[in-house]
């Protein structure tokens, strides 16, 4: 067979040039982001570094394919390999969480965690049915029914009637008694557990009991902790819930996407599959599903279990280090990968510490702490150990991270005093030319660069722009 090696039509040559040749502007920005990830301390609790294998699968030719429907029942032809990929992905998803395929099924097509949640609601309940999820200022996620007194923010509060439950103001732990009392008045159809900024274990049996009192479904959104659940480093929501959703890019360390697990009872299976497609989505992202399959294979390995153990060890070491400096950690510690740090005793807002950390290349995010009056200037920050643990950080390294953060707070407090106002723009001005900040920035970068970086070839990383 002689292949046609003739050059493509001139208007098609762009299809075979590299990203660098074709679009230097985007290429350079990607290279700069690569260097940023490599040379800084990544502490955002919902982020992680995925592996080279996941990036290869995700960036593969599978992105070209349309495959609406489920394996074996597609609306388009040419899906023989795609079907295999999706079937392998589903099998691995059940295996990663030790689920019996007779009892549990899974849909791996949701584009992300938010769409997985909306599809789950679409499957389980009717418009205006009542839902109860953890309030956002208590650490819950937007998609669990968030609204303010002025506005329904999330579509989950626009289409359903939402009454949140909260953490106890004094302890920072979920107030289960009040949840039970309020549920008795509100009579929810769906109770949601899971959060984005909650450092403690979940009392799933108690949630089940409360849901059963009202014949409600119980859904767990384990987005933040699914890697820990897979590694059996967190308690198991599957024993108690009807539906479990997750993102795949947080502790699970896969590509950016979502998954829905459902119990195969009543007609939940067909309702979930219908809700994903055609109710909420069109064609799945095959490249992403291949990436999820790779991540799930990794999540079943003994190395991943070690990783998850180390993530928890590192997060608790960081909590301990900050406590020893005299800071207040919400719930006085952590059971998982994240630490919620209450800065109100220091009279410093989370926004200011986030800004200062950004300037010295430590990436974390401001976060509401329960009892905050203003949502615009939250009183704390959220710090996660997952990403840096993927870079081989151990407990001692997190002691160093805690020291950096302590120095950052000292610099922030001095700048706040110098600024003489509460405004963040005055704060930034007060930091200009600050030598302590420059010194900290330099040390942070040197420290970060001394660790390996998953998925990147450090030898070829560009350092000058
Ligand atoms: C991150 C997160 C989501 C949303 O996931 P996206 O992929 O960002 O849409 C949903 N629920 C929880 C608890 C999360 O932490
Ligand atoms: C791939 O895309 C096609 C078309 O959208 C879809 O039918 C199929 O389910 C997808 N397969 C995977 C593995 O995502
Ligand atoms: C982060 O990714 C690593 C693999 O790179 C994985 O082992 C770990 O569980 C992930 N952790 C979190 C908390 O996402
Ligand atoms: C993978 O592909 C999806 C689109 O299908 C994209 O949104 C995502 O950012 C890609 N990369 C990773 C690592 O998830
Ligand atoms: C917080 O935890 C520390 C140990 O890490 C303990 O010594 C202290 O008593 C705890 N404080 C509270 C208020 O529980
Ligand atoms: C919650 O605690 C904060 C301080 O931790 C306090 O300012 C606030 O008034 C408390 N709110 C309630 C409702 O008790
Ligand atoms: C859960 C866990 O692994 N905790 C560990 C956290 O780190 C501290 C300090 O290194 C250890 O003592 C804990 O066992």
From TrEMBL:
Its EC number is 2.1.2.1. Residues 19-404 form the Serine hydroxymethyltransferase-like domain. Signal peptide: none annotated. It catalyses: (6R)-5,10-methylene-5,6,7,8-tetrahydrofolate + glycine + H2O = (6S)-5,6,7,8-tetrahydrofolate + L-serine. Its cofactor is pyridoxal 5'-phosphate. SUPFAM superfamilies: PLP-dependent transferases. Pathway: One-carbon metabolism; tetrahydrofolate interconversion. GO terms for molecular function: glycine hydroxymethyltransferase activity. Keywords: One-carbon metabolism, Pyridoxal phosphate, Transferase. Interconversion of serine and glycine. Belongs to the SHMT family. This is Serine hydroxymethyltransferase. It comes from Basidiobolus ranarum. The gene is SHM1_2.
């Amino acid at each position: 067979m002689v292949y046609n090696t003739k050059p493509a039509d001139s208007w098609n040559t762009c299809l075979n040039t590299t990203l660098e040749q074709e679009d230097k502007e985007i290429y350079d920005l990607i290279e700069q982001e690569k260097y940023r990830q490599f040379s800084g301390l990544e502490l955002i609790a919902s982020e992680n570094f995925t592996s080279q294998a996941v990036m290869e699968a995700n960036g593969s030719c599978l992105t070209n394919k349309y495959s609406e429907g489920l394996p074996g029942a597609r609306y388009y032809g040419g899906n023989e390999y795609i079907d295999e990929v999706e079937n392998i992905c589903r099998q691995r998803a059940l295996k990663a969480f030790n689920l019996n395929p007779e009892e549990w099924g899974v849909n791996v097509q949701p584009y992300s965690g938010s769409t997985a949640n909306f599809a789950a609601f679409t499957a389980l309940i009717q418009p205006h049915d009542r839902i109860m999820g953890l309030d956002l200022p208590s650490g819950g996620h937007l998609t669990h029914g968030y609204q303010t007194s002025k506005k329904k923010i999330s579509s989950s509060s626009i289409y359903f009637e939402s009454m949140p439950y909260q953490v106890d103001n004094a302890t920072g732990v979920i107030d289960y008694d009040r949840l039970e009392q309020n549920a008795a008045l509100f009579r929810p159809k769906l109770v949601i557990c899971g959060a984005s900024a909650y450092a403690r274990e979940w009392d799933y049996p108690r949630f089940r009991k409360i849901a059963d009192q009202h014949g409600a479904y119980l859904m767990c959104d384990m987005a933040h902790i699914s890697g820990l659940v897979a590694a059996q480093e967190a308690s198991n929501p599957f024993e108690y819930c009807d539906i479990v959703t997750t993102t795949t890019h947080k502790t699970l360390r896969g590509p950016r996407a979502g998954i829905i697990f459902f119990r195969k009872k009543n007609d939940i299976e067909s309702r979930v599959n219908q809700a994903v497609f055609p109710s909420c989505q069109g064609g799945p992202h095959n490249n992403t599903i291949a990436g999820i399959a790779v991540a799930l294979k990794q999540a079943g390995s003994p190395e991943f279990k070690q990783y998850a153990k180390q993530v928890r060890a590192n997060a608790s070491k960081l909590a301990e280090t900050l406590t020893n400096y005299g800071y207040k950690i919400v719930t006085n510690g952590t059971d998982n990968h994240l630490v919620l740090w209450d800065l109100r005793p220091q009279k410093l807002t989370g926004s200011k510490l986030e800004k200062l950390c950004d300037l010295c290349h430590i990436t974390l995010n401001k976060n509401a702490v329960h009892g905050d009056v203003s949502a615009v200037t939250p009183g704390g920050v959220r710090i996660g150990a997952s990403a840096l643990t993927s870079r081989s950080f151990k407990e001692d390294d997190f002691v160093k991270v805690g020291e950096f953060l302590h120095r950052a707070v000292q610099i922030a407090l001095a700048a706040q005093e110098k600024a003489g106002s509460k405004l963040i723009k005055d704060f930034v001005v007060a930091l200009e030319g600050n030598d302590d900040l420059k010194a900290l920035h330099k040390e942070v970068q040197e420290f970060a660069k001394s660790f390996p970086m998953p998925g990147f070839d450090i030898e070829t990383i560009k350092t000058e722009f």
